[in-house]
Amino acid sequence: MNYRSVMYIVFGLSVALSACGKKDEGGDQPAAGKAGAGPAGKAGGQAADKTPAQEARGMFDTLCQTCHGASGKGDGMAAAQLDPKPRDYTDKEWQAKATDENLAKAIVGGGPAVGLSPSMPPNPTLEKKPEVVAELIKIIRAFGK
């Protein structure tokens, strides 16, 4: 399976998950059907009234976790098809070397933006959301503790 096939699978999974009709904590309607909710097909399907931390968590759970895994060990369901394997965020040596600035560049621009694998896709919609990027970095850093 090549990179493009894996990315279509990842994209398809994220769209399917965001459109699956999960109920939010506040009622019986799916989150995408609530007033103020963002479009379901948008990365993470985030509602407009979510905090940066909530938006980051939703993005990680929907997009990042597919490759990096729920535990951050680089063991997500798409990881087996990728070469090189996704970053293991629990690696304390890597955590000590990685800068927040470099992580932000990788999150927004993808792997190629920092000289790494093209398998790490860019998230250009986060270019104007530095507070969400900062929260994603906090999530990544938490795996190293």
Describe the protein in words:
The chain has 145 residues and is an all-alpha fold. It has one domain. The protein contains five helices and no strands. The chain has helices at residues 3-18, 52-68, 92-97, 100-109, 130-142. Helix 1 packs across helix 2, helix 2 packs across helix 5 (130-142) and helix 4 packs across helix 5 (130-142). The longest helix has 17 residues, at 52-68. 23% of the residues are buried. Mean pLDDT is 79; it is low at 1-42.
- What is the terminal-to-terminal distance? 34 Å
Unreliable spans:
1-42
Supply Rg.
15 Å
Q: Characterize the overall form.
A: globular
Q: How big a fraction of the residues is strand? A: under 5%
The number of helical runs is 5
Number of domains: 1
H/E element order? HHHHH
> Can you summarize the main beta sheet?
none
Secondary structure category: mainly alpha
Report the mean per-residue pLDDT as an integer.
79
Quick one: how many beta strands?
0
Helical coverage, percent range: 40-55%
Task: Explain the layout of strands and helices.
Elements: H1 3-18, H2 52-68, H3 92-97, H4 100-109, H5 130-142
